[in-house]
Amino acid sequence: MRFLCVLLTSLLIAGGALAAGEPVVDVLDNGLALIVKENHTAPVVSVRIYVGTGSCYEGEYLGSGISHLVEHTIDGGTPTRTGEEIDAAVESIGNASNAFTSMDETSFYISTSAQYLKTALELLSDYVFHPTFPEEVVEREKGVILREMAMGDDEPGNRLWDLFNATMFRVHPARNRIIGYPERFRTLTRDDVVRYHSRAYVPENAVVAVAGDVKADETLALCRELLAPLPRSAAQIPIPPEEPPQTAARSRAEVDGNLDQAYLEMGVRTVDLLHPDLFALDVASYVLSNGASSRLVRTLRDERGLVSSIDTSSYTPPNRPGMLVASAVLDPKNIGEAETAIWAEMRRLCDGAVTKEELARAKAQKAAELVFGNETAEQQADRLAADYLATGNANFSEDYVSGIGRVTAKDIQRVAQTYFRDDHLCTVVLTPRAPRERKGEEEAQAGLSVERIVLDNGLTVLLGVSHGTPTVSVTTATLGGVRAETAESNGITQLMTSCLLRGTTTRTRDEIARTLEDVGGSVDTYAGRNSFGVRATALSANLDRAVALVADVLRNPVFPEGEVARVRELTLAGLKAEKDDVFATATRLFTRTMYTQHPYGMMPAGTEESVSALRRDDLVAFHQAYCRPGATVVAVYGDFDPAAARALVSAAFGNWPAGEPAAIAPAPEPSLTESRQVTQESAQQQAVIYMGFPGPKIADDDFYAREVMDAMLSGKGLPGGPLHNTLRGRQLVYMVHAFSADGLEPGHFAIVAATAPETVDQALAAIREVVTQFQSTVPDAAALETGKRMCIAENALGRQEVAAIAQEAALDQLYGLGYDRGDHYAERIQAVTAEDVHRVANALLTLDRCVTVVVGPKASQ
User: Fold this and answer.
1) The domain that contains 168 carries what CATH number?
2) Domain span at residue 426?
3) What's the rounded Cα separation, in Å, for the pair 279 and 406?
4) What H or E segment, with its residue span, contains residue 565?
């Protein structure tokens, strides 16, 4: 009954959070649906346009990826704007714009400061409904997508998913890749793109959703003004053929000797989004794998060690069959045993063995998922548009919560018996070797009030109250990380923090996992270059649980010998899987080339050699040396009563014994006096370039000038600026981006690009050309203003979720920057001058003293 009461409370809270600020829906005479939801938590707005077409509805173009090509080329120009003018306009309001294509829909969005709503809506509606598809843009993006295909083929997870769909479906278009196949894709022309767009991109087949700091009536009036003139016409969407029933188990294996780990998916076909079995299937998936206390994670990963990771998902798309799929990463030698064990756990649901606790926990998790997934303007606009397009009901997610609440253990047993049948099972494996034969923006967060307290033991506590959503986040930050490691102990911080969740003096691993999972919350740990910590999120009603749990795992870990060994195995498996990722390989090579003496040359995960040598006693000693209250900040942010929170934190942390942490004094990195270039051969199809420059500390006075420089040079978090425009315009790269990795000691500024092996030299030359040109002149006022807007918009968009704000505040306070540093970001960005950017660019981007790393096939060497 305790679990059921908690569940009902969670459902009521979640339903109330979703209902607050009800969305307003209007359908224009031309058939276009408009949805507006007011959310005054932060001064941002997100505009989404969803179009009801994707790779399953391509008709005669099936398998070509034309839906994705339209998405890539749609902003290349309109009758009133060139592609360059569109890019400049998007950048001028923050540059937070993107799109995606799925099997069933294509989505476009712009998120920005609320004051730019009209601009965002005008831009998005112009290029989505009035594209001209210039020939040169189509050809350019075809080159980009071909590189994207190669990039996807290098990623085992993508390949596995494509292989699974091709095995599950024999007739339905869901068997085809969303991005298409190169042979079919190359035949597409501009005329094909224009024809496909004219058929699908019509008002009655689209939804426009706006969420954020707006007024609904004014926003609807603006939408009508801009969109009502669109002519009504019928969408020409082909009806996909029905998939015939599956009558026997199917399996397929693909061998790739370049892999280090095996990748497994197994599952069954189920139902579409509107089928009544949806709810029980979704809860069943959570019973199986959501959280460390779930069945598959507990048994296969933590007890039997058959997999390094495992997850299930109940995928229920609109208008076509869905599937419930288990996905795992594992050692190749465990494939057969893991398959048998996974299927046995799934089939065990047929026996009706779901306990009241499991059922209540899974239902609470699903309810909480809706709350945590509905915090930001982007999330709200996305959910409203997607729900309405798929179901005709903008409040579908609220109805979904009610449906989840009605699920019983017998419902789960019934759907398991219906769908978890041996003759319905599909299994695919991607493996290094053949498996054995198998059987069958401008203001701080609105309403945020922060109090800083220092306890007698030296612990700093931040209490940030914000009543935007009924959630709380408890985050700790402690000095440590890679800065405190040696080559021999590299990876110890990450291994130690992972083991914090494996047992305390009062809780077992399962009890730790279930403390918050039972009520829809979560707890995890993190470790980086400068610090480590524990993070928990929960519904506001469960703040007491979250604070007590975080304090327990941080203060009282026991590091059980068997759990340490298991986490070490998982870490080593992750390091092996990293070898299959060309970006991870390039990042590791770049890091150790940039830093020859400082610990920043090491990665937080460590190396196979260092991690293999770490033992329980090492973790205990490291924890005792560094995990001290005087070197720790605890941030509690969210919707709570400050007095109650103070009492909870004092009770949980006040008796933590004071003590000086071990000193952290890493060897300084010698000045870089010349350029270094290193190449490494890789089996993947694309090459990755890293070019890096020694950078300043995070507390440096030029931090904000670097932020603006980054935005002006490469788009600040999203593609843009001369780096992107030049290299993509010349079809040299699929992706290029710059970023600043500041540290407590001097860090670096890097430019990273993915290119074809044969164009590495051209791409490197183009990067140097862009950097040289950027340094040559002082930015004009318009470019400077655009860069500032990008920074401010990205910052505001990133500070919508209470957990993100809590961690930012904890780390800033720990690093001596002040917990309110983020609140002043916009004003400090606005104070940056063109001369500041010019000076920083010339001081930082020194081409004769940089590190260049290339990882790729021989052609790129």
Assistant:
1) 3.30.830.10
2) 250-370+393-431
3) 8
4) helix 561-578
